[in-house]
Design goal:
By secondary structure, the protein is of the alpha/beta class. The chain contains 16 helices and 13 strands.
């Protein structure tokens, strides 16, 4: 019976989770950018620590999307190197409760309730033996007062529930429409509108863990501008956001590198806006040194950081694009008659927290999110509590 799920604790979902990499809230955006580029995760946790009092709290997280949206502002785009001197705390959303500390002994229901209450990430202490603690205590990027932490997300909980999906029968086989999971209020932008007009929506979609739909004049879904895709890019995309249309931005961020014709368009429009120095600024900011510096460890490393606009995307040390990080701008879709379990599998397979719902003519009908799915499962579990 599904009642056995009530006995699971948060610790059961943390097995094998890597420790969080962290930054101080007083660190610069440049430090955050460097940490993000060297991290396998899509975001870095931000901490406020009073070591003298033994108090350390995770107060938020930052991603490449936060950096890109910050740099795409007019004042910051004109001088990226100056903008990157700002404290990382400038990127943190003003909404409280997006990150929440919980104990490993907290129940699965408590975790779901916190997520439904608005928490994006649950920060959980990692249980380690004394030998591991000694090995890790010297790692300042992951250790806080001798403790390490991991975090849980909506996706982690959904994956866990999917592993026991049969216990919720017949709910998984019901359609998302019958379950009332389709939300008709969503973020969207028209294909030919300036990409800069979508910056606020991109930031909002990052907070809501959804995406921005790109539609034509008839409401047909063309694609999306997804935070998950932008997180695979680098900071130079800010220049493309300020100069391209929403439709062209999709092509620019799609699959590991912008087309050369769009690169030339961005360069030309930067000149029209009297922002000729932006490309040089981005080169210096990305490499940490001037482009003619000989401090690079290899030719491959040098080429991957000294031409950032032409190589927008996340690259590994060899200079080749990391297939693991690739995300396409093509939207993931389903229909109102799709079953809940099918949509869950679809979202998890594509590493997204949502699936767009379209009509037979491809017009956009709404969106289904992990949050809405969790509400259905929570109602079922609540009846057993």
């Amino acid at each position: 019976m599904a009642v056995r799920l009530l006995n699971y604790e948060v610790a059961d979902l943390c097995l094998g989770k890597p420790p969080l990499r962290s930054l101080s809230a007083s660190a610069s955006l440049a430090s955050a950018l460097s940490a993000l580029k060297s991290s396998d995760d899509g975001c870095i946790s931000v901490w406020s620590c009073l070591h003298s009092a033994g108090e350390c709290r995770c107060i938020g997280k930052v991603s490449m999307v936060d950096v890109i949206c910050f740099l795409s502002k007019d004042d910051n785009l004109s001088s990226p190197s100056t903008a990157l001197k700002s404290p990382v705390s400038a990127l943190l959303p003003k909404l409280p409760g997006l990150v929440c500390h919980v104990e490993p002994s907290s129940s699965l229901l408590e975790a779901i309730d916190l997520i439904l209450g608005g928490a994006q990430n649950l920060v959980v202490p990692i249980k380690t033996n004394s030998r591991r603690k000694q090995q890790k205590s010297s790692n300042s990027s992951t250790s806080h007062n001798g403790r390490e932490f991991c975090w849980l997300t909506q996706e982690d909980v959904i994956r866990f529930l999917l592993s026991s999906i049969g216990l919720f029968s017949p709910i998984p086989s019901m359609s998302i429409n019958a379950l009332g999971l389709i939300t008709t209020e969503f973020l969207s932008v028209e294909y030919h509108s300036p990409a800069s007009s979508a910056v606020a929506a991109i930031s909002q979609s990052l907070t809501g863990q959804t995406s921005v739909a790109v539609v034509d004049d008839y409401g047909i879904l063309i694609g999306e501008i997804s935070p998950f895709t932008l997180a695979c890019c680098d900071e130079t995309v800010a220049a493309a956001i300020r100069t391209l249309s929403a439709g062209d931005l999709m092509a620019y961020i799609d699959c590991g590198g912008p087309p050369e014709d769009l690169v030339r368009v961005v360069e030309a429009r930067l000149k029209e806006k009297n922002l000729e120095g932006v490309l040089d600024e981005f080169t210096i900011c990305s490499s940490g040194t001037p482009s003619n510096s000989s401090s690079s460890s290899s030719d491959d490393d040098s080429s991957s950081v000294n031409t950032p606009l032409r190589r927008s995307g996340r690259y590994n040390r060899s200079g080749s694009y990391s297939a693991r990080m690739v995300r396409r701008a093509e939207a993931i879709v389903c229909h109102s008659g799709s079953s809940l379990v099918a949509v869950m599998i679809q979202a998890i397979a594509h590493r997204v927290n949502y699936v767009w719902v379209i009509e037979e003519d491809c017009s956009l009908a709404g969106i289904v999110t992990f949050s809405n799915m969790l509400k259905v499962f929570r109602q079922h579990l609540h009846s057993l509590a």
